[in-house]
Amino acid sequence: MALQGKKVLHVDRLDHYGGSDANMSYQCLVQAATGDYRLHPHIQDIDLIIADEEGHSALLESRDARQISVDLTPRLVFARGDMLQRIVGAGLDQYAEFTLIGEQTVWPEGGQPVPLPFAANNITNKDRYAALKAALAPAPAGGGMAAKLAVLSDLKRFADFRADIREHIRRVHPAAYGAAPLPTSGAAASPELGVDRIASAPTLPDLLSAYSIASPVPTLLVQRGVLFTGASPSSISTADAVAGFVRYYGSYGRYHLPREGGVYSSPLLTVMYGSGDLVQAVCRLCAVRRGVYIVGADVDVTRASDVTVTIQDTVIKATAPVIITEAGPDPFGRVESFHYIAVVRDVVDTEDRQLHAIETAAGAVWGLELGSTAKAAPRPFRTVHLIAETAEARASAAAMLRSRYHVVSAVQYSKVASSAPGEGETCTVYGRDGLFGMDGALGEAGRVLGGMGLEVLPKPKEDE
User: Fold this and answer.
1) Which residues pair with 48 in a beta bridge?
2) Cross-strand bridge partners of residue 368
3) Start-end ranges of CATH 3.30.519.10 in the chain?
4) Which of 157, 217, 328, 332 is the most exposed place for a label (fewest CB within 10 A)?
5) Cα 307 off chain centre by
6) Looking at residue 221, what DSSP letter applies?
7) CB–CB of 309/318 below 8 Å?
8) Nearest to 352 by CA among 132, 106, 63, 101
């Protein structure tokens, strides 16, 4: 609103920006878990779990606890999409830094994280694919040669599948390699996709079966590595799968960072210090445009246009033609996601910007691991944020995490949904409105501001 010439007064009862999407120090999060710091009411059932008493005490006594940055609701940004366009168009990139996710892994229950065999042309690393197949599927009878032939057969079939998908994108979604947003869910599959064998496939398993892909590995790669979903394959329509491929291929390869031996790319960006820092960037940009932010204040709307703000003993009265208020603490009475934020130390892996797809018997769990490269924690510490749809899946993933890492301490909590699901829609941590759905966050704000004739973070003009 401030970018479009409106006078803005933003008042928050909390002592920080961002509400349930806030970014804060680990010290503040620990204080919240012990009742000494107030969080947004959508953050519930918060609990501190200390794994290393001595290490935890030393951490809190040092300045490291203040330098470890955590998100209450972490989000990632696709390298090409509506949100990134608007970030650049509004000038938010002047106030926030971004970096690429450096590694994607699948972490099978009872095993170790296995890096996905992705490159610019997708699955090209045979050794990584073989390692993933060995971790997820039993080796065929016949020993090493049979296993190698099975890997080559998988790769050949999957290469044919990818080639048809890419050709479909070039023909039907040519702007995907430009600045196209994710196509809407349910878009009809094109008869130009592959041949009739794919155009007639109703679901993802049918689509893969059309190419005689029966191994669980390619299916899992598509689910976790391309579509970024925890949904069961049978519930993913062909149209949604194609839309996910459009988004993936449109984002992959747009940005590169140097790595030993060459460069690498990723379809996903993370905000330095955490995605909540983007909220603070919005606040800074609003202040530059003469907006006023007040945190840690009590606010009372006495009439439709009158606002009273109380900061300790100071009372400020304001008149506003439009007042936007937030919903109450439990508007829909349902938990959207279960979180577990662990501080770990002395990790052997060199890559400290990892996205883990953790497979548990209770369901898939996403794990976002960030360290000093993403400015999320000073060496030797890192943060690992687990996000699950159920408490059981969170508990299983947390146990897997503790078996592999030296966990100093962790804070777990549940997050109440902030919006009602639409007809036929399930709001979960996965999909468009979850960890990977920052574009979807524009929708709710757009509905509010659209009625006022305003635009959310205006897009850059064509000549820009």
Assistant:
1) 411
2) 355, 385
3) 2-99+268-281+330-450
4) 328
5) 36
6) I
7) yes
8) 101
Place of tokens 């050794």: 127
- Could you tell me whether strands 103-107 and 353-360 are parallel, antiparallel, or unpaired per DSSP bridges? parallel
Characterize the bridge pairing of strands 381-388 and 406-416.
unpaired
Rounded to 10 deg, the angle between the 126-136 and 144-172 helix axes is 110
The pairing of strands 262-265 and 256-259 is antiparallel
- Alpha-carbon distances of 147 from 126, 161, 231, 442, rounded to whole Å: 12, 21, 29, 47
Beta carbons within 8 Å of 110's beta carbon, 6+ residues apart? none
Condensed to tens digits (0 to 9), the pLDDT of residues 182-226 reads: 444 444 444 444 545 556 778 888 888 888 887 788 888 888 888
Q: What is the pTM of this model?
A: 0.86
The helix or strand, by DSSP H or E, that contains position 86, with its residue range, turns out to be helix 82-90
The residue written with tokens 């897997």 in the block is: 400
Predicted confidence (pLDDT) at residue 461 exceeds the cutoff of 70: no
pLDDT in tens, 299-343: 776 665 677 878 777 887 877 766 666 655 545 556 778 999 999
State the pLDDT at residue 375.
Answer: 95
Q: What angle do CA 435, 68, 100 make, to 5 degrees?
A: 45
As given in the structure block, the two tokens for residue 400 are 């897997």
Cβ-defined contacts of 121-125 (< 8 Å, 24+): 122/162, 122/252, 123/155, 123/158, 123/159, 123/162, 123/218, 123/221
Q: What is the CATH number of domain 2-99+268-281+330-450?
A: 3.30.519.10
**DSSP string for residues in 328-373:** -SSSS--EEEEEEEEEEE----S--EEEEEEEETTEEEEEEEE-GG
Cα separation of 53 and 256, whole Å?
A: 41
